[in-house]
Amino acid sequence: xxxxxxxxxxxxxxxxxxxxxxxxxxxxxxxxxxxxxxxxxxxxxxxxxxxxxxxxxxxxxxxxxxxxxxxxxxxxxxxxxxxxxxxxxxxxxxxxxxxxxxxxxxxxxxxxxxxxxxxxxxxxxxxxxxxxxxxxxxxxxxxxxxxxxxxxxxxxxxxxxxxxxxxxxxxxxxxxxxxxxxxxxxxx
Length: 188
Description:
By secondary structure, this protein is mainly alpha-helical. The protein has a domain at 111-182 and 184-188. The protein is built from 6 helices and no strands.
């Protein structure tokens, strides 16, 4: 398990930062926030890239909205009936559709919604992805985990904290810069 996690984080970080550094080297700071806007080539490749980006956003929104879905299911459904009863399926379909529709409307309304995604990702997803697992390991293993293990996890926590502060500051700066030139539905 440990080697799988190490491989996952190493491969993920190498690809993520490798693409970021190579993209900045190739395009500079003038590149669009949405990289597929800058790419050329056959139409099918653009369709595939945009479909993949759309699928990723739907899956990630669904993943991180699961607690909201659970709360809505508890409130809006008849709990004594089965989860797949006609009434519950209809209510679930419309409630989740309204939630996704509202999110899409807000995203289209604010042309710099990606900056808000950066902001929430910087102070919510970075800690959950990097700090929280190390905190759990430190809490569970305590002093029995070994000196190097504790040192590694504390290093991850400190590095992630610095990363969290830096990315949050950058996201707030982007929001302020884009708010000055803001108007509704600018990207439509």
